[in-house]
Amino acid sequence: MSHLSVRRLWQSYGDKVVLERINLEIESRSFVSIAGASGCGKSTFLRLVLGQERPTRGTILLDGDPLPPEPGPDRGVVFQRYSVFPHLTVLGNVILGLEIERSPLLGRLFGAARRRAIDEARHYLEAVGLDGDRERYPDALSGGMQQRLSIAQTLIKKPRVLLLDEPFGALDPGTRASIHALVLRPWSEHPMTVLMVTHDLTEAFKLGTRVLVFDKTRHDEQEPERYGATVTYDLTLNRSPSTPPPPAELQAEQASTRSGPRCPPADAPRTLGGAHGEPAHPARRRPTDASTAVEPRAVRDQFVGAGPAPARRCAGHVRRRPRRAGAPRPTSTHGPRRPPWNRGRYGTNS
Amino acid sequence: MTSYRFRWINRRPAGRGSLLALLPFVAIVVAYALGSHARLARNPEDKLMPAAATMAQSFATLAFERDARSGDYLFWEDSRASLVRMGAGLGIATGVGLVVGVAIGMLPYLRALLASLVAAFSMIPALAILPILFIVFGVGEVAKVVLIVVGVVPFIIRDLSQRVGELPEEQWIKAQTLGASSWQVALRMVLPQILPRLIDALRLSLGPAWLFLISAEAISATSGLGYRIFLVRRYLSMDVILPYVLWITLLAFAFDSGLKWLRRAAFPWAREEARR
Fold first, then answer.
1. Which of chain B's residues have a Cβ under 8 Å away from the Cβ of A94?
2. How far is the C-alpha of A106 from the C-alpha of B181, rounded, in Å?
Protein backbone atom coordinates (compact mmCIF):
# COMPACT_ATOMS: atom_id res chain seq x y z
CA MET A 1 0.00 0.00 0.00
CA SER A 2 1.06 3.56 -0.38
CA HIS A 3 -1.12 5.96 1.51
CA LEU A 4 0.37 9.42 1.90
CA SER A 5 -0.55 11.72 4.76
CA VAL A 6 0.62 15.29 4.78
CA ARG A 7 0.19 16.94 8.17
CA ARG A 8 0.44 20.68 8.70
CA LEU A 9 3.25 21.11 6.23
CA TRP A 10 5.07 24.47 6.00
CA GLN A 11 8.08 25.26 3.93
CA SER A 12 9.96 28.52 4.05
CA TYR A 13 13.36 29.73 2.91
CA GLY A 14 14.49 32.41 5.30
CA ASP A 15 11.66 34.94 5.36
CA LYS A 16 10.10 33.61 2.21
CA VAL A 17 7.18 31.32 2.92
CA VAL A 18 6.50 29.00 0.01
CA LEU A 19 3.99 26.54 1.37
CA GLU A 20 1.75 26.82 4.38
CA ARG A 21 -0.95 24.77 6.08
CA ILE A 22 -0.86 21.80 3.73
CA ASN A 23 -3.00 18.95 5.03
CA LEU A 24 -3.69 16.07 2.71
CA GLU A 25 -4.69 12.47 2.84
CA ILE A 26 -3.81 10.76 -0.39
CA GLU A 27 -5.31 7.36 -0.91
CA SER A 28 -3.27 4.48 -2.12
CA ARG A 29 -3.40 4.02 -5.89
CA SER A 30 -4.66 7.48 -6.57
CA PHE A 31 -3.26 9.62 -9.36
CA VAL A 32 -2.98 13.13 -8.04
CA SER A 33 -2.43 15.99 -10.46
CA ILE A 34 -1.00 19.10 -8.86
CA ALA A 35 -1.58 22.29 -10.80
CA GLY A 36 -1.07 25.95 -10.17
CA ALA A 37 0.66 29.02 -11.45
CA SER A 38 4.42 29.22 -11.74
CA GLY A 39 6.07 29.70 -8.39
CA CYS A 40 3.07 28.50 -6.40
CA GLY A 41 5.14 25.87 -4.65
CA LYS A 42 3.95 22.78 -6.44
CA SER A 43 7.46 21.70 -7.33
CA THR A 44 8.57 22.47 -3.79
CA PHE A 45 5.87 20.14 -2.55
CA LEU A 46 7.12 17.42 -4.86
CA ARG A 47 10.68 17.92 -3.65
CA LEU A 48 9.48 17.54 -0.08
CA VAL A 49 7.74 14.27 -0.85
CA LEU A 50 10.81 13.15 -2.76
CA GLY A 51 13.05 13.88 0.21
CA GLN A 52 15.18 16.27 -1.77
CA GLU A 53 14.35 18.92 0.84
CA ARG A 54 13.21 18.72 4.41
CA PRO A 55 10.07 20.59 5.47
CA THR A 56 10.40 23.54 7.81
CA ARG A 57 7.41 22.27 9.78
CA GLY A 58 5.05 19.36 9.53
CA THR A 59 5.39 15.77 8.49
CA ILE A 60 4.72 13.54 5.56
CA LEU A 61 3.79 9.97 6.36
CA LEU A 62 3.84 7.04 3.98
CA ASP A 63 1.48 4.37 5.32
CA GLY A 64 1.81 5.90 8.76
CA ASP A 65 5.62 6.04 8.86
CA PRO A 66 7.52 9.28 8.40
CA LEU A 67 9.20 9.50 5.02
CA PRO A 68 12.95 8.99 5.07
CA PRO A 69 14.58 12.44 4.84
CA GLU A 70 16.50 11.59 1.69
CA PRO A 71 15.48 10.13 -1.67
CA GLY A 72 15.15 6.38 -1.75
CA PRO A 73 13.84 3.49 -3.84
CA ASP A 74 10.35 3.72 -2.34
CA ARG A 75 9.77 6.94 -4.29
CA GLY A 76 10.50 6.96 -8.01
CA VAL A 77 10.77 10.15 -9.98
CA VAL A 78 10.62 11.31 -13.57
CA PHE A 79 11.96 14.81 -14.13
CA GLN A 80 11.35 17.13 -17.01
CA ARG A 81 14.99 17.03 -18.07
CA TYR A 82 18.23 15.15 -17.29
CA SER A 83 16.13 12.23 -16.27
CA VAL A 84 18.28 9.47 -17.76
CA PHE A 85 21.99 8.78 -17.57
CA PRO A 86 23.76 9.84 -20.75
CA HIS A 87 26.65 7.40 -20.31
CA LEU A 88 24.43 4.32 -20.27
CA THR A 89 22.59 2.74 -23.16
CA VAL A 90 18.83 2.46 -23.09
CA LEU A 91 19.13 -1.05 -21.68
CA GLY A 92 21.85 0.04 -19.27
CA ASN A 93 19.63 2.78 -17.94
CA VAL A 94 16.81 0.37 -17.21
CA ILE A 95 18.81 -2.45 -15.63
CA LEU A 96 20.75 0.03 -13.49
CA GLY A 97 18.11 -0.11 -10.77
CA LEU A 98 18.32 -3.90 -10.64
CA GLU A 99 22.11 -3.93 -10.73
CA ILE A 100 22.30 -1.50 -7.85
CA GLU A 101 19.87 -3.56 -5.82
CA ARG A 102 21.51 -6.93 -6.46
CA SER A 103 25.19 -5.98 -6.44
CA PRO A 104 25.95 -3.69 -3.50
CA LEU A 105 29.71 -3.74 -3.99
CA LEU A 106 30.16 -3.27 -7.72
CA GLY A 107 26.74 -2.08 -8.78
CA ARG A 108 27.11 -4.40 -11.75
CA LEU A 109 25.76 -7.82 -12.69
CA PHE A 110 27.46 -10.50 -14.74
CA GLY A 111 26.54 -13.77 -16.38
CA ALA A 112 23.24 -15.39 -15.54
CA ALA A 113 22.23 -12.69 -13.05
CA ARG A 114 22.75 -10.10 -15.74
CA ARG A 115 20.73 -12.08 -18.25
CA ARG A 116 17.87 -12.32 -15.79
CA ALA A 117 18.01 -8.57 -15.21
CA ILE A 118 18.01 -7.98 -18.95
CA ASP A 119 14.93 -10.14 -19.37
CA GLU A 120 13.11 -8.10 -16.75
CA ALA A 121 14.28 -4.85 -18.26
CA ARG A 122 13.13 -5.85 -21.70
CA HIS A 123 9.65 -6.41 -20.37
CA TYR A 124 9.57 -2.75 -19.35
CA LEU A 125 11.26 -1.59 -22.52
CA GLU A 126 8.64 -3.34 -24.58
CA ALA A 127 5.96 -1.69 -22.50
CA VAL A 128 7.32 1.75 -23.36
CA GLY A 129 8.09 0.79 -26.95
CA LEU A 130 11.86 1.12 -26.73
CA ASP A 131 12.95 -2.49 -27.01
CA GLY A 132 14.27 -1.91 -30.51
CA ASP A 133 16.47 0.93 -29.33
CA ARG A 134 18.03 -0.78 -26.36
CA GLU A 135 21.64 -0.44 -27.54
CA ARG A 136 21.38 3.26 -28.31
CA TYR A 137 22.54 6.09 -26.09
CA PRO A 138 20.02 8.64 -24.79
CA ASP A 139 21.74 11.32 -26.81
CA ALA A 140 20.43 9.63 -29.96
CA LEU A 141 16.83 9.54 -28.70
CA SER A 142 14.13 12.16 -29.07
CA GLY A 143 12.78 13.99 -26.05
CA GLY A 144 9.69 11.81 -25.91
CA MET A 145 11.73 8.62 -26.11
CA GLN A 146 13.97 9.85 -23.31
CA GLN A 147 10.93 10.44 -21.11
CA ARG A 148 9.61 7.00 -21.94
CA LEU A 149 12.98 5.56 -21.04
CA SER A 150 12.93 7.44 -17.77
CA ILE A 151 9.50 6.03 -16.98
CA ALA A 152 10.69 2.48 -17.64
CA GLN A 153 13.82 3.10 -15.58
CA THR A 154 11.69 4.26 -12.67
CA LEU A 155 8.98 1.61 -12.90
CA ILE A 156 11.38 -1.32 -12.82
CA LYS A 157 12.01 -0.47 -9.18
CA LYS A 158 8.26 -0.75 -8.49
CA PRO A 159 8.18 2.37 -6.32
CA ARG A 160 5.34 2.89 -3.88
CA VAL A 161 5.06 6.51 -4.85
CA LEU A 162 5.76 7.78 -8.35
CA LEU A 163 6.56 11.47 -8.65
CA LEU A 164 6.30 13.18 -12.00
CA ASP A 165 7.72 16.71 -12.15
CA GLU A 166 6.29 18.28 -15.28
CA PRO A 167 7.43 15.20 -17.15
CA PHE A 168 5.82 16.21 -20.42
CA GLY A 169 6.51 19.91 -20.25
CA ALA A 170 9.19 19.85 -22.91
CA LEU A 171 7.32 17.63 -25.36
CA ASP A 172 5.23 18.53 -28.36
CA PRO A 173 1.46 17.82 -28.15
CA GLY A 174 1.48 14.68 -30.31
CA THR A 175 4.25 13.07 -28.31
CA ARG A 176 2.50 14.07 -25.13
CA ALA A 177 -0.69 12.28 -26.04
CA SER A 178 1.12 9.02 -26.72
CA ILE A 179 2.94 9.20 -23.41
CA HIS A 180 -0.24 9.98 -21.50
CA ALA A 181 -1.58 6.60 -22.48
CA LEU A 182 1.64 5.09 -21.24
CA VAL A 183 1.47 6.79 -17.87
CA LEU A 184 -2.08 5.60 -17.33
CA ARG A 185 -1.24 1.98 -18.00
CA PRO A 186 1.51 1.03 -15.56
CA TRP A 187 -0.21 3.00 -12.88
CA SER A 188 -3.14 0.62 -12.96
CA GLU A 189 -0.88 -2.46 -12.94
CA HIS A 190 1.22 -1.71 -9.86
CA PRO A 191 -0.27 -0.59 -6.60
CA MET A 192 1.33 2.78 -6.38
CA THR A 193 0.37 6.36 -5.78
CA VAL A 194 1.24 8.90 -8.43
CA LEU A 195 1.83 12.60 -7.85
CA MET A 196 2.18 14.64 -11.00
CA VAL A 197 3.07 18.30 -11.10
CA THR A 198 1.88 20.03 -14.24
CA HIS A 199 0.94 23.49 -15.35
CA ASP A 200 -1.37 22.09 -18.00
CA LEU A 201 -4.83 21.76 -16.52
CA THR A 202 -6.10 19.67 -19.40
CA GLU A 203 -3.38 17.19 -18.69
CA ALA A 204 -4.16 17.34 -14.98
CA PHE A 205 -7.76 16.33 -15.58
CA LYS A 206 -7.01 13.84 -18.28
CA LEU A 207 -4.61 11.82 -16.18
CA GLY A 208 -5.56 12.43 -12.58
CA THR A 209 -8.12 10.84 -10.31
CA ARG A 210 -7.74 13.84 -8.09
CA VAL A 211 -6.71 17.37 -8.93
CA LEU A 212 -5.08 19.72 -6.46
CA VAL A 213 -4.47 23.38 -7.15
CA PHE A 214 -1.95 25.33 -5.10
CA ASP A 215 -2.25 29.05 -4.64
CA LYS A 216 -1.86 31.77 -2.06
CA THR A 217 -4.97 32.58 -0.07
CA ARG A 218 -3.51 35.46 1.87
CA HIS A 219 -1.74 38.40 0.35
CA ASP A 220 0.29 41.11 1.94
CA GLU A 221 0.89 43.99 -0.42
CA GLN A 222 3.87 45.25 1.56
CA GLU A 223 5.47 41.87 1.96
CA PRO A 224 4.53 39.49 -0.84
CA GLU A 225 6.62 36.70 0.61
CA ARG A 226 4.92 36.81 3.97
CA TYR A 227 2.41 34.11 3.10
CA GLY A 228 2.82 30.89 1.20
CA ALA A 229 0.57 28.86 -1.03
CA THR A 230 -1.75 26.16 0.15
CA VAL A 231 -4.23 23.78 -1.44
CA THR A 232 -7.01 25.98 -2.72
CA TYR A 233 -8.83 23.50 -4.83
CA ASP A 234 -9.22 19.80 -4.34
CA LEU A 235 -11.33 17.74 -6.67
CA THR A 236 -11.62 13.98 -6.59
CA LEU A 237 -12.65 12.46 -9.87
CA ASN A 238 -14.26 9.10 -9.47
CA ARG A 239 -14.07 7.92 -13.00
CA SER A 240 -11.29 5.49 -13.45
CA PRO A 241 -12.61 2.03 -14.26
CA SER A 242 -9.22 0.54 -13.47
CA THR A 243 -9.12 1.70 -9.86
CA PRO A 244 -11.12 0.11 -7.11
CA PRO A 245 -13.91 2.44 -5.94
CA PRO A 246 -12.83 4.63 -3.06
CA PRO A 247 -14.19 3.79 0.38
CA ALA A 248 -17.72 4.90 1.16
CA GLU A 249 -16.77 7.58 3.63
CA LEU A 250 -14.53 9.15 1.05
CA GLN A 251 -17.36 9.25 -1.43
CA ALA A 252 -19.56 10.87 1.16
CA GLU A 253 -16.93 13.43 1.84
CA GLN A 254 -16.59 13.93 -1.84
CA ALA A 255 -20.25 14.69 -2.23
CA SER A 256 -19.98 17.50 0.26
CA THR A 257 -16.81 18.97 -1.13
CA ARG A 258 -16.95 22.70 -0.79
CA SER A 259 -15.61 23.23 -4.24
CA GLY A 260 -18.83 22.18 -5.83
CA PRO A 261 -18.44 20.38 -9.11
CA ARG A 262 -20.02 16.98 -9.05
CA CYS A 263 -18.21 13.98 -10.19
CA PRO A 264 -19.05 12.82 -13.64
CA PRO A 265 -20.16 9.24 -14.27
CA ALA A 266 -17.54 6.56 -14.14
CA ASP A 267 -17.66 5.96 -17.84
CA ALA A 268 -16.80 9.53 -18.72
CA PRO A 269 -14.43 9.49 -21.62
CA ARG A 270 -10.79 9.94 -20.84
CA THR A 271 -10.06 12.13 -23.77
CA LEU A 272 -11.84 15.11 -22.33
CA GLY A 273 -10.40 18.42 -23.15
CA GLY A 274 -8.66 17.18 -26.20
CA ALA A 275 -11.96 16.30 -27.89
CA HIS A 276 -13.20 19.80 -28.39
CA GLY A 277 -10.04 21.71 -28.79
CA GLU A 278 -8.36 23.60 -26.03
CA PRO A 279 -10.84 25.63 -24.02
CA ALA A 280 -9.74 28.84 -22.42
CA HIS A 281 -7.19 27.92 -19.83
CA PRO A 282 -8.61 28.67 -16.40
CA ALA A 283 -5.27 28.40 -14.64
CA ARG A 284 -3.87 31.25 -16.64
CA ARG A 285 -6.58 33.59 -15.45
CA ARG A 286 -5.73 35.65 -12.47
CA PRO A 287 -8.19 34.56 -9.80
CA THR A 288 -10.27 37.45 -8.55
CA ASP A 289 -11.38 35.61 -5.49
CA ALA A 290 -8.36 34.61 -3.51
CA SER A 291 -10.07 31.58 -2.05
CA THR A 292 -10.22 29.67 -5.31
CA ALA A 293 -7.37 29.69 -7.73
CA VAL A 294 -9.49 28.18 -10.44
CA GLU A 295 -13.09 29.05 -10.91
CA PRO A 296 -15.09 25.89 -10.32
CA ARG A 297 -17.29 26.76 -13.24
CA ALA A 298 -14.39 27.08 -15.62
CA VAL A 299 -13.02 23.78 -14.42
CA ARG A 300 -16.38 22.14 -14.78
CA ASP A 301 -16.72 23.52 -18.25
CA GLN A 302 -13.46 22.06 -19.17
CA PHE A 303 -14.19 18.76 -17.61
CA VAL A 304 -17.79 18.18 -18.54
CA GLY A 305 -17.10 19.55 -21.97
CA ALA A 306 -19.66 20.74 -24.46
CA GLY A 307 -22.60 19.34 -22.52
CA PRO A 308 -25.78 21.25 -21.85
CA ALA A 309 -24.09 23.54 -19.39
CA PRO A 310 -25.39 27.01 -20.16
CA ALA A 311 -22.42 28.67 -18.71
CA ARG A 312 -19.98 28.38 -21.54
CA ARG A 313 -18.66 31.83 -21.96
CA CYS A 314 -15.75 31.40 -24.24
CA ALA A 315 -15.32 34.45 -26.39
CA GLY A 316 -15.90 32.48 -29.53
CA HIS A 317 -19.30 31.28 -28.40
CA VAL A 318 -20.84 34.57 -27.48
CA ARG A 319 -23.42 35.40 -30.04
CA ARG A 320 -25.77 38.32 -30.09
CA ARG A 321 -29.33 37.17 -29.85
CA PRO A 322 -31.26 38.07 -33.03
CA ARG A 323 -33.98 40.58 -32.48
CA ARG A 324 -37.46 39.20 -32.69
CA ALA A 325 -39.49 40.45 -35.61
CA GLY A 326 -41.78 43.22 -34.60
CA ALA A 327 -39.96 43.96 -31.44
CA PRO A 328 -39.44 47.64 -30.89
CA ARG A 329 -36.12 48.96 -31.94
CA PRO A 330 -34.19 49.35 -28.82
CA THR A 331 -33.74 52.89 -27.74
CA SER A 332 -30.79 54.29 -26.08
CA THR A 333 -32.33 53.98 -22.67
CA HIS A 334 -33.68 50.43 -22.88
CA GLY A 335 -31.67 48.73 -25.53
CA PRO A 336 -28.35 47.08 -25.27
CA ARG A 337 -25.73 49.39 -23.97
CA ARG A 338 -24.02 51.35 -26.62
CA PRO A 339 -20.33 51.14 -26.75
CA PRO A 340 -18.81 53.97 -24.77
CA TRP A 341 -17.38 55.76 -27.75
CA ASN A 342 -20.76 56.73 -29.19
CA ARG A 343 -22.79 56.91 -26.07
CA GLY A 344 -22.65 60.65 -25.76
CA ARG A 345 -23.47 61.43 -29.34
CA TYR A 346 -26.99 60.00 -29.57
CA GLY A 347 -27.72 58.76 -26.12
CA THR A 348 -28.80 62.00 -24.48
CA ASN A 349 -31.09 63.81 -26.86
CA SER A 350 -33.02 61.42 -29.09
CA MET B 1 25.49 38.66 -63.01
CA THR B 2 27.47 39.65 -60.01
CA SER B 3 28.61 36.89 -57.75
CA TYR B 4 27.31 36.90 -54.23
CA ARG B 5 29.77 38.19 -51.70
CA PHE B 6 29.69 36.18 -48.48
CA ARG B 7 30.76 37.65 -45.19
CA TRP B 8 34.15 36.42 -44.08
CA ILE B 9 32.62 34.68 -41.10
CA ASN B 10 30.61 32.53 -43.50
CA ARG B 11 33.33 31.61 -45.95
CA ARG B 12 34.67 28.14 -45.40
CA PRO B 13 37.46 26.23 -47.07
CA ALA B 14 36.34 23.46 -49.40
CA GLY B 15 36.86 19.91 -48.18
CA ARG B 16 38.22 19.78 -44.66
CA GLY B 17 40.83 22.46 -45.13
CA SER B 18 43.72 20.11 -44.35
CA LEU B 19 45.82 21.52 -47.14
CA LEU B 20 45.32 24.96 -45.69
CA ALA B 21 46.53 23.70 -42.33
CA LEU B 22 49.66 22.35 -43.95
CA LEU B 23 50.51 25.68 -45.50
CA PRO B 24 52.07 27.44 -42.46
CA PHE B 25 54.24 24.39 -41.75
CA VAL B 26 55.54 24.36 -45.30
CA ALA B 27 56.13 28.09 -45.10
CA ILE B 28 58.25 27.71 -41.96
CA VAL B 29 60.32 24.89 -43.46
CA VAL B 30 60.91 26.87 -46.64
CA ALA B 31 61.79 30.02 -44.72
CA TYR B 32 64.24 28.05 -42.57
CA ALA B 33 65.81 26.40 -45.60
CA LEU B 34 66.29 29.73 -47.36
CA GLY B 35 67.69 31.40 -44.25
CA SER B 36 70.01 28.54 -43.50
CA HIS B 37 71.23 28.45 -47.09
CA ALA B 38 71.92 32.18 -47.10
CA ARG B 39 73.84 32.09 -43.79
CA LEU B 40 75.86 29.03 -44.74
CA ALA B 41 76.76 30.60 -48.09
CA ARG B 42 78.33 33.51 -46.21
CA ASN B 43 79.95 31.45 -43.45
CA PRO B 44 80.18 27.66 -43.83
CA GLU B 45 81.05 27.38 -40.09
CA ASP B 46 77.77 28.99 -39.01
CA LYS B 47 76.15 27.01 -36.19
CA LEU B 48 72.93 28.93 -35.75
CA MET B 49 70.94 27.55 -38.66
CA PRO B 50 72.44 24.21 -39.63
CA ALA B 51 71.45 22.60 -42.91
CA ALA B 52 68.99 19.71 -42.87
CA ALA B 53 71.74 17.30 -43.87
CA THR B 54 73.88 18.34 -40.88
CA MET B 55 70.97 17.88 -38.53
CA ALA B 56 70.21 14.46 -39.99
CA GLN B 57 73.82 13.41 -39.55
CA SER B 58 74.04 14.59 -35.93
CA PHE B 59 70.77 12.96 -35.17
CA ALA B 60 71.91 9.69 -36.76
CA THR B 61 75.06 9.76 -34.64
CA LEU B 62 73.01 10.07 -31.47
CA ALA B 63 70.35 7.62 -32.49
CA PHE B 64 72.25 4.84 -34.21
CA GLU B 65 75.80 4.86 -32.81
CA ARG B 66 76.78 3.79 -29.37
CA ASP B 67 78.18 6.50 -27.19
CA ALA B 68 81.90 5.90 -26.61
CA ARG B 69 81.71 6.61 -22.91
CA SER B 70 78.44 5.00 -21.74
CA GLY B 71 77.93 2.47 -24.53
CA ASP B 72 74.29 3.60 -24.95
CA TYR B 73 72.37 4.86 -27.92
CA LEU B 74 72.07 8.35 -26.44
CA PHE B 75 68.92 9.45 -28.24
CA TRP B 76 66.92 6.37 -27.24
CA GLU B 77 68.33 6.41 -23.74
CA ASP B 78 67.28 10.07 -23.39
CA SER B 79 63.83 9.33 -24.72
CA ARG B 80 63.38 6.34 -22.45
CA ALA B 81 64.45 8.27 -19.35
CA SER B 82 62.17 11.19 -20.13
CA LEU B 83 59.17 9.03 -20.99
CA VAL B 84 59.53 6.97 -17.82
CA ARG B 85 59.55 10.14 -15.70
CA MET B 86 56.67 11.58 -17.65
CA GLY B 87 54.64 8.36 -17.45
CA ALA B 88 55.22 7.97 -13.73
CA GLY B 89 54.43 11.62 -13.03
CA LEU B 90 51.28 11.75 -15.10
CA GLY B 91 50.16 8.32 -13.91
CA ILE B 92 50.42 9.24 -10.25
CA ALA B 93 48.88 12.65 -10.89
CA THR B 94 45.95 11.04 -12.71
CA GLY B 95 45.29 8.51 -9.98
CA VAL B 96 45.55 10.99 -7.12
CA GLY B 97 43.66 13.67 -9.02
CA LEU B 98 40.81 11.32 -9.92
CA VAL B 99 40.30 9.91 -6.44
CA VAL B 100 40.67 13.19 -4.57
CA GLY B 101 38.81 15.22 -7.20
CA VAL B 102 35.80 12.89 -7.26
CA ALA B 103 35.77 12.62 -3.47
CA ILE B 104 35.87 16.38 -3.00
CA GLY B 105 33.23 16.85 -5.66
CA MET B 106 30.91 14.28 -4.14
CA LEU B 107 31.22 14.69 -0.40
CA PRO B 108 30.27 18.05 1.12
CA TYR B 109 32.29 17.35 4.27
CA LEU B 110 35.45 16.65 2.32
CA ARG B 111 34.82 19.70 0.17
CA ALA B 112 34.52 21.90 3.23
CA LEU B 113 37.72 20.40 4.58
CA LEU B 114 39.95 20.36 1.51
CA ALA B 115 38.70 22.63 -1.26
CA SER B 116 40.44 25.77 0.06
CA LEU B 117 43.64 23.86 0.63
CA VAL B 118 43.69 22.61 -2.95
CA ALA B 119 42.87 26.08 -4.24
CA ALA B 120 45.78 27.52 -2.27
CA PHE B 121 48.14 24.78 -3.42
CA SER B 122 47.27 25.27 -7.04
CA MET B 123 48.53 28.85 -6.75
CA ILE B 124 52.05 27.75 -5.82
CA PRO B 125 54.28 27.91 -8.89
CA ALA B 126 55.58 24.37 -9.03
CA LEU B 127 58.98 25.43 -10.34
CA ALA B 128 59.49 27.61 -7.29
CA ILE B 129 59.42 24.57 -5.05
CA LEU B 130 61.75 22.56 -7.29
CA PRO B 131 64.73 23.36 -5.00
CA ILE B 132 62.74 22.05 -2.06
CA LEU B 133 62.02 18.86 -3.95
CA PHE B 134 65.70 18.41 -4.77
CA ILE B 135 66.60 18.97 -1.12
CA VAL B 136 63.96 16.60 0.18
CA PHE B 137 64.06 13.87 -2.45
CA GLY B 138 67.62 14.19 -3.66
CA VAL B 139 68.63 14.71 -7.26
CA GLY B 140 67.44 11.31 -8.43
CA GLU B 141 64.34 10.33 -10.34
CA VAL B 142 61.92 10.91 -7.47
CA ALA B 143 62.25 14.69 -7.42
CA LYS B 144 61.49 14.97 -11.14
CA VAL B 145 58.43 12.76 -10.90
CA VAL B 146 57.21 14.61 -7.83
CA LEU B 147 57.62 17.92 -9.61
CA ILE B 148 55.27 16.78 -12.37
CA VAL B 149 52.79 15.46 -9.83
CA VAL B 150 52.88 18.60 -7.70
CA GLY B 151 52.55 20.78 -10.77
CA VAL B 152 49.65 18.93 -12.33
CA VAL B 153 47.61 17.43 -9.51
CA PRO B 154 45.98 20.60 -8.10
CA PHE B 155 44.65 21.46 -11.53
CA ILE B 156 43.22 17.98 -12.08
CA ILE B 157 41.63 17.91 -8.63
CA ARG B 158 40.00 21.28 -9.07
CA ASP B 159 38.84 20.56 -12.57
CA LEU B 160 37.35 17.18 -11.72
CA SER B 161 35.68 18.26 -8.48
CA GLN B 162 34.09 21.09 -10.40
CA ARG B 163 32.91 18.73 -13.12
CA VAL B 164 31.39 16.43 -10.52
CA GLY B 165 29.53 19.40 -9.11
CA GLU B 166 28.24 20.22 -12.57
CA LEU B 167 26.42 16.91 -12.94
CA PRO B 168 22.73 17.82 -12.94
CA GLU B 169 20.90 17.69 -9.63
CA GLU B 170 18.28 15.49 -11.29
CA GLN B 171 20.84 12.74 -11.80
CA TRP B 172 21.87 12.69 -8.17
CA ILE B 173 18.25 12.38 -7.09
CA LYS B 174 17.48 9.81 -9.74
CA ALA B 175 20.37 7.59 -8.70
CA GLN B 176 19.19 7.70 -5.10
CA THR B 177 15.63 6.82 -6.07
CA LEU B 178 17.08 3.79 -7.83
CA GLY B 179 18.45 2.79 -4.46
CA ALA B 180 22.10 3.63 -4.98
CA SER B 181 24.42 4.09 -2.00
CA SER B 182 27.10 6.80 -2.05
CA TRP B 183 29.62 4.21 -3.19
CA GLN B 184 27.34 3.00 -5.97
CA VAL B 185 26.65 6.57 -7.04
CA ALA B 186 30.39 7.10 -7.33
CA LEU B 187 30.91 3.86 -9.19
CA ARG B 188 27.97 3.85 -11.58
CA MET B 189 27.09 7.49 -12.06
CA VAL B 190 29.98 9.83 -11.26
CA LEU B 191 33.06 7.90 -12.28
CA PRO B 192 31.96 6.89 -15.78
CA GLN B 193 30.84 10.41 -16.54
CA ILE B 194 34.00 11.94 -15.12
CA LEU B 195 36.50 9.77 -17.03
CA PRO B 196 36.17 11.68 -20.31
CA ARG B 197 36.65 14.87 -18.33
CA LEU B 198 39.74 13.35 -16.81
CA ILE B 199 41.14 12.78 -20.26
CA ASP B 200 40.40 16.38 -21.15
CA ALA B 201 42.13 17.56 -17.99
CA LEU B 202 45.08 15.32 -18.75
CA ARG B 203 45.39 16.72 -22.25
CA LEU B 204 45.43 20.24 -20.88
CA SER B 205 48.07 19.18 -18.37
CA LEU B 206 50.45 17.81 -20.98
CA GLY B 207 51.98 21.22 -21.74
CA PRO B 208 52.79 22.06 -18.11
CA ALA B 209 53.98 18.49 -17.52
CA TRP B 210 56.58 18.71 -20.29
CA LEU B 211 57.63 22.09 -19.00
CA PHE B 212 58.23 20.69 -15.53
CA LEU B 213 60.03 17.63 -16.86
CA ILE B 214 62.44 19.53 -19.06
CA SER B 215 63.12 22.11 -16.36
CA ALA B 216 63.91 19.42 -13.84
CA GLU B 217 66.13 17.57 -16.31
CA ALA B 218 67.91 20.77 -17.28
CA ILE B 219 68.90 21.41 -13.68
CA SER B 220 69.92 18.00 -12.52
CA ALA B 221 70.02 14.80 -14.53
CA THR B 222 72.38 12.45 -16.30
CA SER B 223 70.06 11.60 -19.14
CA GLY B 224 66.82 12.75 -20.67
CA LEU B 225 65.69 14.89 -23.54
CA GLY B 226 65.85 18.11 -21.52
CA TYR B 227 69.23 17.18 -20.12
CA ARG B 228 70.65 16.64 -23.62
CA ILE B 229 69.34 19.92 -24.99
CA PHE B 230 70.79 21.92 -22.15
CA LEU B 231 74.06 19.97 -22.31
CA VAL B 232 74.75 20.66 -25.97
CA ARG B 233 73.66 24.28 -25.60
CA ARG B 234 77.20 24.98 -24.38
CA TYR B 235 78.55 24.06 -27.81
CA LEU B 236 75.85 25.93 -29.70
CA SER B 237 74.84 22.57 -31.22
CA MET B 238 71.70 23.67 -32.95
CA ASP B 239 72.01 20.55 -35.11
CA VAL B 240 71.17 18.49 -32.01
CA ILE B 241 68.81 20.90 -30.27
CA LEU B 242 66.46 21.35 -33.22
CA PRO B 243 65.88 17.61 -33.89
CA TYR B 244 65.33 17.10 -30.15
CA VAL B 245 62.79 19.90 -29.98
CA LEU B 246 61.05 18.41 -32.99
CA TRP B 247 61.03 15.01 -31.31
CA ILE B 248 59.62 16.38 -28.06
CA THR B 249 56.93 18.19 -30.02
CA LEU B 250 56.12 14.99 -31.85
CA LEU B 251 55.87 13.04 -28.59
CA ALA B 252 53.60 15.65 -27.04
CA PHE B 253 51.46 15.64 -30.14
CA ALA B 254 51.26 11.85 -30.09
CA PHE B 255 50.20 11.88 -26.43
CA ASP B 256 47.54 14.43 -27.16
CA SER B 257 46.18 12.60 -30.21
CA GLY B 258 46.27 9.30 -28.36
CA LEU B 259 44.22 10.69 -25.50
CA LYS B 260 41.80 12.27 -27.93
CA TRP B 261 41.39 8.98 -29.73
CA LEU B 262 40.95 7.15 -26.43
CA ARG B 263 38.21 9.56 -25.40
CA ARG B 264 36.30 8.95 -28.59
CA ALA B 265 36.79 5.19 -28.59
CA ALA B 266 36.04 4.57 -24.93
CA PHE B 267 33.26 7.11 -24.39
CA PRO B 268 31.17 7.26 -27.54
CA TRP B 269 28.30 8.83 -25.61
CA ALA B 270 30.33 11.85 -24.50
CA ARG B 271 30.05 14.72 -26.86
CA GLU B 272 33.09 16.88 -27.32
CA GLU B 273 32.83 20.61 -27.14
CA ALA B 274 30.84 21.92 -30.07
CA ARG B 275 32.94 23.04 -32.97
CA ARG B 276 31.98 25.41 -35.66
1. none
2. 11
